[in-house]
Design goal:
This protein has helices at about 40-45, 50, 70-80, 90-100; strands at about 5-10, 15-20, 25-30, 55-60, 85, 105-110. The chain is an alpha/beta fold and about 110 residues long.
Length: about 110
Amino acid sequence: MESTLEFKSEIAPGVFCGQKQVPMETAGCYVPGGRYAHVASAIMRSPQPRLQELKISWHAHLQTHRRNKPAILYTMNMCGADNILAIGGFKGIASLAFGLFTGNRRHPCRSR
């Protein structure tokens, strides 16, 4: 748990590195879709905003052939997605990052 604390150290004369805690209210998660979409992508990304106790989470998912994948939409909903955008690729990520639909920028959620 020591890695979650704020710290700052000088690694060379005049060169500092550190970590700072910044509170967030909203999060944007991109769930990849496309030809070989898998529900595991939604399972890995959708619960993260709830675990981090954020107020609102937005998710973007790619449509293929003008259709959404029902299994992935259901999984995102069951895992706690507040809002789902049917926009994928760079357009979905830009919409989440710059808050094009709400005016509020969102912080990205990443999963490994």
